[in-house]
Amino acid sequence: MPLADETSPSNPIAGNWHFVTNSRWFHPLLLLVWLMIGLGLRLTNLTAKPPWTDEFSTLVFSLGNSFLPVPLDQAIAPDILLQPLQPQASDTIQDVWAHLSHETNHPPLYFFLAHWWMQLFPTQQGLVSLWGARSLSAIFGAASIPAIYGLGWLTFRSRLIAHIAAAIMAVSPYAIFLAQEARHYTLAILWVIASFACLIIATRHIQNRTQLPITTALAWVVINAFGIATHYFFVLTLGSEALVLIFLAWRQSNFTSPPWRRIYAVAAGTAISGIVWVPIFLQNNYGDKLTDWIQQPRQGFEWLNPFFQAFAAWVTMLFLLPIESPQLAIILISGLVMLIFFIWFLPIFIRGIKVQLQQPETQVLWGIILAAIALFFVFTYFLGIDLTRGARYNFVYFPAVILLLGASLAVRWQIQEKNYKITGKQALAIIWLMGFCSAVTVICNLGYQKYYRPDLFLQLIRQTSQVPVVIATTQITHVQMGEMMGIAREWKIQNTPSASLQFVLAHQDQNPNTSTNTLNNILKTLPKPFDLWLVNFRAPTAAETEKCLAETKSLPAVNGYEYKIYHCQ
């Protein structure tokens, strides 16, 4: 069944939009506008927010360095803690893979690319450039704008839908949140878009009962292989696609028509490209410890948390105002405006989807989204792995949401009925401006706020302690090292005169008292006076207070850092 173009009366959004597109330069120039806006937003304030633990993993492993040489169970200076962030001219791709495969649970493709990319940027006081590391993710994020445009055109043969999707992608607060971190999610999104494109092509051949081109089949396997090599959760994208294909086969009651044989070959090739990673993943001793945070037991009303977490992630794909502002008044006003906007927007979205569901391509997109959400809740409630706790994991179906929004809003664009108080174009302008304000919210760290604020924590230390400072934490994996690296990096970058600073990474095994005993032994060797800051210290703390007085004054909380202060005289 051929798909109608924009000017065909069989297309549900056919209308008068094409009259402004007579110039062959109109669409490329408009797409360039979305790209420049999106890239500009992603590069704005790129280093204003300090890196957090996951980003430190990217920085260290992409350099070809390791966390293992950092000394444990002794007092160390900030420069020693920061040594893994120092580029070494002798490090190679082989070093990247060697450390990555033994110390973390991620595939290597993005880290290889980051290794080459970060070499282009000068160091900052001897440390790897944060701007250089984050800019790679930002560029991949900006590339998703023309990519979603291409997917929109391929899917609906509508430049209007393609432009709306690109415009939304340019300002999506969720997309900008991912693009401003030195992580692999924006590259994974590009593979998701490419894989969805192959799926759309395949579904058309299924509907027409024609052979899937060998070039498409091979490209699909390669794309899926790269997706898995970028992030293991890409398999959730593949699972969603598989469920959609199974449904199409069941509806046709035909698993042997011409396109299916090559689709089976694609499935086999993709499976092989994924199986090669299984032994590496299983031999990694760090895997379980690094994912403990999404395997927490639930009690009572906590069983409802995944629904609220999932809903929050869906909403923030389109809009998010400063609900994490330090000012309560701004939080309340932002929440109220978001609620009003959602109530106004939801009927527009539903009406558009009802019209677009006439098209099989829209049904495929819906199928992808519903299948992915179903997989998330299966993992959450049946396997005990709460994927809804990490909003970033929604990258596996995020492009389908953006494209579906574009298709729905394209319907409203065309409606010019007199019973509407505002035209479709005005409604779309309001929605886009809301997205733009949401993007600014994320850029200013007032939404999708960083989990860790070492900058604020260091400021608190300097305001509180006038004597040398010892920061102690319990260490299980490199996550805890990253928490301390954030403080040490701020100390080095700010380079302001202050009392000396030392860190103690007390390794913790099955017996938590081990960390306590280690810390007590170290404290006996340190010259007094000093202030002891126990930061995220997950072990008994009574013993080490024998000759130190606990701070009684109430001090402010800081994101990512739970602390107690003892004055050792």
Automatic annotation (TrEMBL):
Transmembrane regions: 25-43, 136-154, 160-178, 185-206, 218-250, 262-283, 303-321, 328-352, 364-383, 395-415, 427-448
Organism, scientific name: Nostoc cycadae WK-1
Any GO BP annotation: lipopolysaccharide biosynthetic process
Main localization, broad class: membrane
A molecular-function term among this protein's GO annotations: pentosyltransferase activity
Keywords in alphabetical order: Cell membrane, Glycosyltransferase, Membrane, Transferase, Transmembrane, Transmembrane helix
PANTHER family: MANNOSYLTRANSFERASE YKCB-RELATED, UNDECAPRENYL PHOSPHATE-ALPHA-4-AMINO-4-DEOXY-L-ARABINOSE ARABINOSYL TRANSFERASE
GO cellular component assignments: plasma membrane
Domain of life: Bacteria
Protein location: Cell membrane
Protein name: Glycosyltransferase
Membrane topology: Multi-pass membrane protein
InterPro entries on file: LipidA_mod_glycosyltrf_83 (IPR050297)
